[in-house]
Amino acid sequence: MVKIIKEENISDFIEDLQKRNAQDYNNVYETVDEILENVRINKDVALKKYTLEFDGVNIENLEVSPEEIEEAFSTIDPELLETIKKAKENIYTYHMNQKRKGYQFKPEGKDILLGQLINPIEKAGIYVPGGKAAYPSTVLMNAIPAKIAGVEEIIMITPPQKDGKIKDSILVAASLSGVDRIFKVGGAQGIAALAFGTQSIPRVYKITGPGNIFVAAAKRRVSGFVGIDMIAGPSEILIVADDKANPAYIAADMISQAEHDEMAASVLITYSLSLAEKVSKELDRQIKQLERSEIIEKSINNHGAILIADSMKQCIDLANEIAPEHLELLTSNCFELYKSIKNAGAIFLGEYTPEPVGDYFAGPNHTLPTSSTAKFSSALSVDDFIKKTSLIYYSREALKENKDDIVRFAENEGLTGHANAVKIRKL
Fold first, then answer.
1. CATH class assigned to 3-23+233-363
2. What is the pLDDT of residues 188-244, one digit of tens each?
3. Quick one: a GO biological-process term for this protein (predicted)?
4. Where are the domains of the chain?
5. What span, in angstroms and rounded, lies between the C-alpha atoms of 98 and 100?
6. Looking at the whole model, is its pTM more than 0.70?
7. What local confidence, expressed as pLDDT, does residue 124 receive?
8. For this structure, is 277 an active site residue?
9. Which residues contact 241 (CB under 8 A, 6 or more apart)?
């Protein structure tokens, strides 16, 4: 049964919630470091060894062939194909609005040129979970922003199924999104291949995409050698509801996150004890009807809660403190209330915008900051696949006019070589 927590105990719950997000990477680093080093040295041989060991598949050719992609288009459910195409268009349209241009300007009356150049990252690697699970939505959410940014080569890796193939929906989504090459490899070994390069898999400059704790640990280890997007923690949803909200909808939306895994957190904040009790009953009723009921029940019991605030203002204050990955506002004044939200990965407004709308179809990216990191980070976007380079030009006269200030700054910091680089020009 879900915990109903009153005001005096809310801070303790939030503290426990944030502790849950601190995954113990120390337990996997030894294994991950060994895998990274083995792939760095032995390349494809190591990849094939680990694919056999971890995925139970003996892969001869790591790269997905054009024939396999053609087969995926011929075997995929036609209705699912149309759904993927519609989602692709929505995601493309949304992310096109993020595309930015560089700029240049000359300060008035000065022979100075300043600016910023925008260039795409040349090679990006996308990790897509695979095997038993299949996430074509992850392909779309990572590849489309990269394509819009102008990435020249998009490399995708994903673990093979037991038959050595990649699920048709994954291949179709990759093809439609503009992925250039696809490889049948996953885990920490796949991250190593993208970071260091092998005979088959080219080295990339940035890696994006979610994975298990071994994938996350590998991304941590190679970060700095290559760029990474973020280290995602367990999934989470926070729902803020008033006394007019539908308890059945709330329970269903909490469950939609709880079914991810036992570490997922589903939390409701409301000032209505009556609503809280109705939602608790709905959770008990709905969980019994679902396939993943065992996982859902553990998630709700261990990390779920209904927090009883004293007012809607406190509901919003608590939401900003928790800074959730997904925030639903199931209130009659949601279009006013969202303006008070400072920290959230994505905000879902009203009772007909459940979180799966954003996961799959609406267009905004579903790769979101977890574990309260929405206080300082953002959803995956086109910006994650570009670089910004400063542009500076001073004429002789402009440097002469400003030389004393520059030299004074350099000498104050004890960097006489910096000062001399200006002085030597004898202006």
1. alpha beta
2. 999 999 999 999 999 999 999 999 889 999 999 999 999 999 888 889 999 999 999
3. L-histidine biosynthetic process
4. 3-23+233-363, 26-228, 395-427
5. 6
6. yes
7. 98
8. no
9. 250, 268, 269, 270, 272, 275, 330, 331
